[in-house]
Amino acid sequence: METLEQTPEALQRKLYFLLEQLQDMARELPPKYQMRVPIELLSGLANCLLNDTVFEIVKGLMEIQHVTEKHLFQQRLQIINKHTLEIQEMINTTPNPAQQEIKRNVLLKRHKEELKQTDMKLVIQLDQKVSDQQDTLEKAGVPGFFVTNKPIEIKVQMYLLDFILRLSKMDIP
């Protein structure tokens, strides 16, 4: 049976390839993000990507995120559909146009507030998903990942995830 162990030379070539690709990707970033992605970080990331574990973790996190986003979107659509049905029901049960207009305005105001509350809950759930992802990647030892809610650090992490996903689609020598 053939082993999948790679020779030190093959690992070295792979490491150089990964680092070169990461440096090229980092050069494409806007300057304010480039300075937040030093060579030490890219080198650590390249080392971390020598085996495919991190690629698998990132793909798994991405699948979970897509399922979560679809689920949250469905929740939001259910609220909107419920509102549409309430308006239709009110129209069907209120023959007087003047009363209809008053009831409609009351419903629309309530619906707007309800949708705002729903959206706030959905954003909190998405923020929690981001934290979970950061935590998972930090525990996996992926450089550049730690739990934060600072927008600039999250943006850098998003760029790093993009790098990892782009590398996962490449034929790595």
Automatic annotation (TrEMBL):
It comes from the Eukaryota. Belongs to the gonadal family. InterPro entries: Gonadal. This is Gonadal protein gdl. It holds the Pfam family DGCR6.
